[in-house]
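idk why but the lab printer keeps eating my pages so im just putting this in chat instead. protein + nicotinamide-adenine-dinucleotide:
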Amino acid sequence: MVKLAILGTGIISECHFFALDHIKDVKVTAIASIDEKSGKAACEKFGAKYYNDYKNLLSNEKDFDGIVIALPNHMHYEACTAAIDAGVKSILCEKPLGINSEQSACIVEKARKAGIFFQTAYMKRFNPGFRKIKDALEEIGEIEFVTSSIYASSPEPSISSKTPVKSWHGDSKLSGGGFLTHSGSHHLDLLRHLFGDIKSVSCKCRYDSGDGRDYYLNGKLFMKSGIEIDMRLGRVDIPNLGPGFTLFRGGWNETIEVIAHRGYIKVENPSWQGYEAMKVTHWFKGMPGPTETYYECNEQWINEFAAYVESCKTHILSPSGSSAEDGYRVDFIIEKMRESGRKNGEIVEID
Ligand SMILES: NC(=O)c1ccc[n+]([C@@H]2O[C@H](COP(=O)([O-])OP(=O)(O)OC[C@H]3O[C@@H](n4cnc5c(N)ncnc54)[C@H](O)[C@@H]3O)[C@@H](O)[C@H]2O)c1
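predcted complex ->
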């Protein structure tokens, strides 16, 4: 039985708790949240002990094998550091790893020196639809085009006053950035997982508020393998663009499309909360035409947590897992994309 302590009981924890409900051999023993209502409700659900601050949990609780950090972005660095200092042996930390690459580099170094197990919670690698792309890569042969896009039917408040902003989510000093940090980070991690590392980037950015809250991005990722990927991100004022998403009025429209010499694959609408089926369209050479298959997006949470629970026992990262280094790499690439945006799309080397 793997015992877990959870730090934070906010929006994302709904997905984590869904996953934990579906995994055997795991027990949540302690939960920390400054929000007493959601913290105590979660403790009641799992029969866990409640702490009103994560620091109290780390200094007083010893009955766990690993922790899950689901705190606001600006707290990841301090919480990871405090957890390692407290002797925690396994950490699953929500994305982005830090609010800048300097923080995430320090987390990588500290985790390495302490010899602990660390996983960055980029769950799209565990998504059943996106896994189909990885499975298809050999079959479809040489890649011609890859396009990745995420459009949310929810404009930034500075271009519309309709969107309510939750405290830290909308403050770049606390969140680390705009849509690129919140959502583009997922695709940067996933695209590295699928197509290898990124050599250089070019990025044009509209509505850059100057403080890192960038949205409406048109990027090009030049992969070390030679593949060029078009990446588009936008929080747009267009309602109902995709499956309903409680935080955004009307929709979440996310796609990765791959065109190759011997095949085609497109993954659509992996909604974050996963309440709707996602669609995978594929064609392999010899098939009369494309075939559509639907998957349960919510499986991504179960797969991610099952992998982490297993890693708490073995200290080995699952083949789909993102390491601390992967988390750092994404944070660094984001900074390089911003740099390119400031230089109006000039190509910026990553290494
Ligand atoms: N993987 C994804 O797709 C995804 C989606 C959404 C959020 N996230 C990430 O999850 C993390 C949490 O985001 P959220 O939207 O759930 O935030 P939130 O603001 O809804 O929740 C934050 C939680 O942290 C708790 N907290 C704050 N200070 C604390 C302290 N000192 N001690 C204990 N608890 C404390 C709050 O009580 C709250 O429960 C962020 O890093 C975010 O980027 C990931």
